[in-house]
Amino acid sequence: MQLPPKVTDRAFARLAEIEAGAGGKALRVAVEGGGCSGFQYDIRLDEPHPDDLRLEGGGECVVVDSVSLPFLAGATIDFSDELIGARFVIENPNAASSCGCGISFSM
After folding, report:
1. Which residue among 5, 54, 98, 102 is least crowded, i.e. fewest CB within 10 A of its CB?
2. What letter would DSSP give residue 16?
3. 10, 79 in Cβ contact below 8 A?
């Protein structure tokens, strides 16, 4: 059995700051083909679907679709706020390599 992705308290806190849940939205984390390394993350606010894996905390929700789930098994979804910018980031143990921007990866 694959480990589900984890979401940090910092990521849930950022979703609460932008009031995603109050607007009926969740943070959707998906994996698509493309990018400079073969796969890329699609991270956006979206409405949850009934067949999504729901990861909940602090009144907020992160969702992953069933196609993306195997690519994100054991991954950590976090929020980073640095001088170069603020963004949601994925620490993915399944990625063999990733590009400098952190959006594209290979397996």
Report:
1. 54
2. H
3. yes
Contacting residues for 41 by C-beta, under 8 A, at least 6 apart = 29, 30, 31, 32, 90, 103, 104, 105
CA distance 73 to 86: 24
How many other C-beta atoms lie within 10 A of the C-beta of residue 56? 13
Give the whole-angstrom CA distance, residue 60 versus residue 79. 14
Residue-wise pLDDT for 33-74, tens only, equals 876 667 888 999 999 999 999 999 999 999 999 999 999 999
Domain boundaries, the chain: 6-106
d(C-alpha 18, C-alpha 14), whole Å: 6
Position with higher pLDDT, 104 vs 48: 48
